[in-house]
Design a protein that fits this description.
alpha+beta; six-stranded antiparallel sheet; two-stranded antiparallel ribbon; 16% helix; globular
């Protein structure tokens, strides 16, 4: 997957990644991630909670879940967008969060901070590129 094209009408705000999680959510029963950021304008926000796996298709494996191409692509795309080599390096990194309009709306993507290497990412582009594991 190549980098996303970020339309000019989208709002971007400088932020620093403060905390991440990557793992199984026992309450919701799926594999997911969260990334929390401190915003340059004050306050904090987070993005994530996407299911990175799916139910096992075989009836004999009821209740089990299996990884998806979408999940691997999403993790990889976040790492590339920030410009690091692994998930553990995300904390402390500067980024820009992308929103549809104004403050405190849902984060829909991330781009590298000014002067940092990385590949722009709109989260929906990962779903479009993988069609939820059916690429």
């Amino acid at each position: 997957m190549t980098g996303s094209t970020i339309p000019k009408y989208l709002f971007q705000e400088n932020a620093t990644i403060t905390r991440t999680t990557l793992g199984f959510d026992p309450e919701r029963l799926f594999f997911t991630f969260w990334v929390w950021v401190d915003l340059e304008g004050g306050g904090g926000h987070g993005f994530g909670d996407y299911a990175l796996d799916r139910p096992h298709p075989h009836p004999g494996h009821r209740g089990e879940r299996i990884p998806t191409e979408y999940g691997m692509q999403m993790i990889s795309a976040i790492i590339r967008a920030v410009g690091v080599n692994n998930w553990e390096e995300l904390v402390g990194q500067p980024i820009k969060v992308v929103r549809e309009a104004g403050e405190r709306t849902r984060i829909i993507g991330i781009v590298p901070a000014d002067g940092h290497s990385g590949v722009p990412l709109l989260f929906d582009d990962v779903a479009d590129a993988t069609r939820w594991g059916a690429a």
